[in-house]
Amino acid sequence: MSKTRQGIDELALNLVALARAANINLSTAESCTGGGISTAITAVPGSSHMFKGGIIAYANSVKTAQLHVPAGLIEKHGAVSEPVALAMAEGANTALKTDMAISVTGIAGPDGGTEDKPVGTVWIAIAQKGRSTAAHLFEFTNTGRKNIRLCATNEALRMLCEAIENQKCTGL
Amino acid sequence: MSKTRQGIDELALNLVALARAANINLSTAESCTGGGISTAITAVPGSSHMFKGGIIAYANSVKTAQLHVPAGLIEKHGAVSEPVALAMAEGANTALKTDMAISVTGIAGPDGGTEDKPVGTVWIAIAQKGRSTAAHLFEFTNTGRKNIRLCATNEALRMLCEAIENQKCTGL
Questions:
Q1: Given an 8 Å threshold on Cβ–Cβ distance, is B56 in contact with A149?
Q2: Which of A27, A30, B62, B143 has its CB surrounded by the most CB atoms within 10 Å?
Q3: How many domains, in total, are found in chain B?
Q4: Does B38 reach chain A within 8 Å, measured CB to CB?
Q5: Angle at CA B101, nearest 5°, toward A28 and A37?
Q6: Intra-chain end-to-end CA distance of chain B, in Å
Q7: What is the pTM (predicted TM-score) of this model?
């Protein structure tokens, strides 16, 4: 990468400025990051103009009740999967009536990893009103729970900045 | 105080151990802390056994829609008030079907302060299934947005530990 890697604080500052300039409001649906993305965004003064709130869906019952993720989807694909990440982001966007929502579901460890989905497996999805929802798979190296959560938070903020910048280019 | 003041990481570790030992599960309803309490709890391995999730209710529309805080209560008393803190905690406990929920609503600044409610004014409430909900007012010195949020997170975690320890003494 030619660009210097940005830290969480800097990304959150950029995100708040980008969203405010584009008049876009956001929500979050966090599982393994447990509120880290929302905490980073709300650390920025003035974030209340673009951040409406979020659902921390740690238990599957919260994913189904608050984010309206179909229980069958979790049973079939597991909570850490592309379909569940997509449904979580769409659920947050609908429930919190926002323009854009991000979801994160992953295995931060130290337990919970399997051969198919080792610790460090994280799906991140972005739902945008009037556009299709897209998810990305990250397979972070298992450098510990703290690092995996920070990597996921960093990627989520970066993806949100990118999505807003893309909207500016293509128009909504 | 004779006891050494505990940091957020240590309090979160204690809280997860106390809740697991008492078989109590928790949820959160965060406004000014923006997810900081949930992030601290979920940083602890094994927290998924006692933490179901939370609602980050930054916008008032999220307080009313997701936490079922009556809009009239916010209009009458303001979002940063004892009745709204109580309703947020009860709303989280009911919506997320937990044994205990904590809510935080306050003015982290730099804007939003008034003569009556200066920056640093924070209400924290704890709802416990089968018990009355109680709220406490904190008037933190305005040492900046970051510090106020950290102080509120610290007090919230401390109050949760205390509430679980009190349940052990008095029985539910």
A1: no
A2: A30
A3: 1
A4: yes
A5: 20
A6: 29
A7: 0.96
